[in-house]
């Protein structure tokens, strides 16, 4: 993602994400769910579009509370599909709600979404992709790879000469611990 390290610093949306989130370990399940949701919604669109709509996504999906989203019914689906602040794609909305239910199951079996990720770590990218495709909806190779890089499970978020990379390494991402 070397281009990102060049263009993101100083940008009003990319800069804060690049400097403080992208590639850093994420432990909180709701935050992991948010990242997965944002990556799913980025498919076919620019990351800037998603970052600009992030606050609206947080509001629309009630802070990415997994249990609340998993319980969404037809009224919530209709509300989301009518919300101009988010990406109103039926397949993506359905995937997010479905994936929240999957996360409940993973949490029951592994204690948390992070526990499930840690249980399977380390895996090569191709194995992660197969696992995500079997487990979640709307998770192809790019979505899976970006999700795992953005949350510290796979390397590659920053170049070695990017100043943020040293801070990420100090935070102990899981790919370093492998």
Short description:
This is DNA-3-methyladenine glycosylase I. With 178 residues, the protein is mainly alpha-helical.
Pick out its properties.
Endonuclease III, domain 1, about 180 residues, mainly alpha, about 0% strand, single chain, DNA-3mA_glycosylase
Description of the molecule:
By secondary structure, this protein is mostly helical. The chain has 13 helices and no strands. The model has no long low-confidence stretch (mean pLDDT 97). It has a single domain, classed as Orthogonal Bundle (Endonuclease III, domain 1). This is DNA-3-methyladenine glycosylase I. One of its GO terms (biological process) is base-excision repair. Pfam families: Adenine_glyco. Keywords: Metal-binding, Zinc.
* Beta-strand share of residues: under 5%
Average of the residue pLDDT scores: 97
Sheet of most strands: none
The CATH superfamily bears the name Hypothetical protein, domain 2
Quick one: how many beta strands?
Answer: 0
Structural class: mainly alpha
- Helix-strand topology string: HHHHHHHHHHHHH
Distance between the termini: 21 Å
Count of runs of 4 or more consecutive helical residues: 13
The CATH architecture category equals Orthogonal Bundle
Q: Would you give the CATH topology?
A: Endonuclease III, domain 1
């Amino acid at each position: 993602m070397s281009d990102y390290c060049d263009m993101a610093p100083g940008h009003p949306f990319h800069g804060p994400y690049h400097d403080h989130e992208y590639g850093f370990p994420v432990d909180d399940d709701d935050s992991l769910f948010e990242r997965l949701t944002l990556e799913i919604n980025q498919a076919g669109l620019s990351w800037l579009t998603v970052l600009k709509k992030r606050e609206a996504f947080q509001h629309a999906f009630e802070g990415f509370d997994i249990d609340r989203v998993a319980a969404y019914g037809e009224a919530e689906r209709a509300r989301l599909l009518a919300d101009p602040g988010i990406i109103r794609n039926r397949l993506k909305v359905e995937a997010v709600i479905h994936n929240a239910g999957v996360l409940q199951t993973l949490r029951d079996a592994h204690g948390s979404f992070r526990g499930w990720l840690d249980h399977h770590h380390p895996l090569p990218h191709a194995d992660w992709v197969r696992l995500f495709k079997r487990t979640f909806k709307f998770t192809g190779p790019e979505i899976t790879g970006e999700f795992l890089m953005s949350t510290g499970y796979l390397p590659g978020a920053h170049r070695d000469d990017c100043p943020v990379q040293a801070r990420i390494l100090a935070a102990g991402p899981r790919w370093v611990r492998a």
